[in-house]
């Protein structure tokens, strides 16, 4: 292998390796967002008591109900009314959490509730944290209820750890009390933020040194219908007033039944921006282009406000009160103002009021997720024009559809290039061998003009959408091989992210996923480590790599790419050996200057292509580091069988 250190190519984009976040597989509620109470405000219209049940054997509990009567606010207008004919420790409710509540021994949890008393002599509430067998782990009292809504808070410390705890609330005394916005929130959040995020999961992301964070999805941006689309404006401001919405991934399937999947929006757009900042990633919000998910429905926002009689009349399955495209465009303009605008601007003021005076410095905005065809382009164009007219420096990420090899995809890509789109978001979910065979996918893409965002990809061990897909080493090493092709074409590909990011082991709809977790623990898959080895070794400048005899990258199952890191003065070579034999390689660092004496190798390997990581064996396939000798510009190194290796060699270009 010859690395042409003296023929450097283009700079590597700082955004090159990043993250794709979607609220799928309990990634937000029940995952990254650590609120432990499910349906804390009784606002899930399909069943206002989702997640709650009356205490068993509650003979004295006359009734509990959810009604509207002087509610807390106009948007949070349902609450629970508890009535007990006689005092009983059984008069109350239990919340089940998200597949239970993860409670840690001696950690602190803030319980809070809005409450008021009604007729009778209720003096307060007994709050109990229990394990799944009902054993008490902590108990506190809320007292001094008045006739008006008031917030009460108490800090609780479980005496033992429980992976599937629950919260029990019981009335003290006989009579009536109303309760709402019931929260149990760990004090331990990333950066100790109020309404913060689950520490271990954020840490796994931060450890990756991600270049960007794309959010909030995925199909969730689109919604199954336009009415169920993601609306960022509904996700900011007072957390208690955010109204939940059915999750597009709410579904009943064998192995992955999640018919109780709603978005609380406790993790909303402000929190996504803050998370991006915390992990050092460029925020990349994706907005609805005015189309529902094309796999589910044909709902389209009319492109003109007179669509019932104009050229778009009859288009899709619209409803009379559906918003027109202008609403969607305005949402995008307002989002940019929310992220970057001054305190004197209406939307900038809302960001400042939420505690972030400085702008979030938003540079990218995505218009539509995985959408295709003329209906997409027709909506994309006015979007693009409006954004560019007001914010010429914002980079627009556009979509070209789900099938990167289809005719519609090609047509969309062509048109988007004509429109001078900055970045096209390509998605591919395919078998592992597709990834190894398509390592040259970008070799012939134009180096000028529109760039590529490999926005969602993952090798599927069985088939796309199969519940039996595994995060096997075969999938991960094939992705590592493919990524040498991304890196070798970093003048065309400027962003890349594996998808989906997170999955709860007991509540998922999609496999494979990069990080799996339960209520207490989390682990990175082999795919996570592949991504991490790229994103923590991105380099700053492309270096061409040539194989002896002009073999193509990937021929005979050896895949390679190289970059220079001008900040540290190192040459970084990435090598994938997809074979059962160890493989000695000779690397000629052509024209290298100031060569050091020892390099560092990070090796991810397994002899078993079916190997996976699990909660019990989280590092079954995990990187190991070793140093190796460098005696001349001809570096020799032996690659382990079935391995992905990153070599960092001190040397300048
Ligand atoms: O990553 C899961 C889904 O795959 C995303 O929501 C969608 O964009 C794609 O089809």
Automatic annotation (TrEMBL):
Feature: compositional bias, Polar residues: 302-311
SUPFAM superfamilies per record: (Trans)glycosidases (SSF51445), Galactose-binding domain-like (SSF49785), Glycosyl hydrolase domain (SSF51011)
EC nos: 3.2.1.55
Similarity comment: family membership: Belongs to the glycosyl hydrolase 51 family.
Region described as Disordered: 302-321
EC class (word): hydrolase
Reactions this protein catalyses: Hydrolysis of terminal non-reducing alpha-L-arabinofuranoside residues in alpha-L-arabinosides
Pfam families assigned to the protein according to its UniProt record, in alphabetical order: Alpha-L-AF_C, ASD1_dom, CBM_4_9
Domain Alpha-L-arabinofuranosidase C-terminal positions: 455-643
Transmembrane segment boundaries: none
SMART domains named in the record: Alpha-L-AF_C
The protein, known as: non-reducing end alpha-L-arabinofuranosidase
Gene Ontology MF annotations: alpha-L-arabinofuranosidase activity
One of the GO biological process terms: L-arabinose metabolic process
Keywords of this entry: Glycoprotein, Hydrolase, Signal
PANTHER family linked: ALPHA-L-ARABINOFURANOSIDASE 1 (PTHR31776:SF0)
């Amino acid at each position: 292998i010859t690395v042409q250190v003296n023929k450097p190519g283009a700079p590597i984009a700082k955004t090159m390796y990043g993250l794709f976040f979607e609220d799928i597989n309990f990634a937000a509620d029940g995952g990254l967002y650590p609120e432990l109470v499910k349906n804390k405000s009784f606002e899930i219209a399909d069943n206002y008591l989702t997640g709650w049940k009356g205490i068993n054997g509650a003979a004295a509990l006359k009734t509990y109900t959810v009604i509207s009567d002087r509610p807390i606010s106009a948007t949070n207008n349902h609450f629970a009314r508890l009535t007990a004919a006689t005092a009983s420790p059984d008069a109350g409710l239990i919340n089940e959490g998200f597949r239970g509540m993860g409670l840690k021994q001696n950690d602190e949890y803030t319980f809070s509730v809005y409450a008021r008393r009604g007729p009778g002599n209720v003096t307060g509430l007994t709050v109990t944290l229990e394990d799944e067998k009902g054993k008490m782990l902590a108990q506190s009292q809320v007292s001094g209820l008045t006739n008006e809504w008031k917030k009460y808070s108490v800090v609780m410390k479980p005496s033992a750890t429980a992976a599937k705890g629950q919260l029990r609330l019981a009335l003290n005394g006989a009579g009536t009390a109303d309760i709402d916005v019931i929260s149990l929130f760990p004090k331990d959040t990333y950066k100790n933020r109020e309404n913060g995020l689950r520490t271990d999961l954020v840490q796994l992301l931060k450890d990756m040194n991600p270049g960007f964070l794309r959010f909030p999805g995925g199909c969730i941006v689109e919604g199954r219908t336009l009415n169920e689309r993601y609306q960022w404006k509904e996700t900011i401001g007072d957390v208690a007033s955010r109204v939940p919405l059915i999750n597009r991934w709410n579904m009943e399937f064998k192995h992955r039944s999640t018919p109780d999947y709603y978005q609380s929006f406790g993790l909303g757009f402000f929190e996504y921006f803050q998370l991006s900042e915390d992990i050092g990633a460029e925020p990349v919000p994706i907005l609805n282009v005015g189309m529902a998910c094309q796999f589910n429905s044909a709902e389209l926002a009319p492109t003109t406000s007179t669509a019932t009689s104009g050229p778009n009349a009859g288009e899709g399955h619209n409803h009379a009160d559906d918003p027109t495209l202008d609403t969607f465009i305005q949402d995008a303009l307002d989002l940019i103002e929310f992220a970057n605008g001054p305190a004197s601007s209406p939307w900038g003021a809302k960001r400042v009021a939420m505690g972030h005076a400085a702008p979030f410095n938003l540079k990218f905005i995505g218009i539509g997720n995985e959408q295709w065809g003329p209906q997409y382009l027709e909506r994309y164009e006015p979007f693009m024009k409006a954004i560019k007219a007001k914010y010429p420096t914002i980079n627009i990420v556009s979509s070209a559809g789900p099938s990167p090899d289809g005719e519609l995809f090609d047509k969309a890509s062509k048109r988007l290039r004509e429109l001078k789109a900055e970045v096209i978001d390509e998605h591919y979910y395919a078998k592992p061998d597709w990834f190894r065979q398509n390592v040259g996918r970008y070799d012939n893409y134009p180096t000028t003009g529109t760039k590529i965002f490999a926005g969602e990809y993952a090798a599927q061990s069985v088939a796309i959408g199969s519940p039996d897909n595994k995060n096997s080493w075969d999938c991960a090493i094939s992705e590592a091989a493919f990524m040498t092709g991304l890196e070798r074409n970093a003048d065309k590909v400027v962003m890349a992210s594996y998808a989906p990011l997170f999955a709860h082991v007991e509540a998922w709809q999609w496999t494979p996923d990069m990080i799996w977790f339960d209520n207490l623990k989390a682990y990175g898959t082999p795919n996570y480590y592949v991504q991490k080895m790229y994103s923590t070794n991105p380099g700053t400048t492309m270096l061409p790599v040539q194989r002896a005899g002009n073999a193509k990258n990937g021929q005979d199952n050896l895949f390679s790419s190289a970059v220079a890191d001008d900040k540290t003065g190192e040459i970084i070579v990435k090598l994938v050996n997809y074979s059962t034999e160890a493989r000695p390689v000779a690397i000629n660092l052509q024209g290298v200057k100031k060569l050091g004496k020892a390099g560092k190798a990070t090796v991810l390997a397994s002899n078993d292509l079916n190997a996976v990581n699990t909660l019990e064996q989280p590092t079954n396939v995990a990187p190991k580091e070793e140093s190796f000798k460098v005696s001349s510009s001809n570096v020799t190194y032996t690659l382990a069988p079935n391995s992905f290796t990153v070599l960092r060699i001190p040397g300048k270009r």
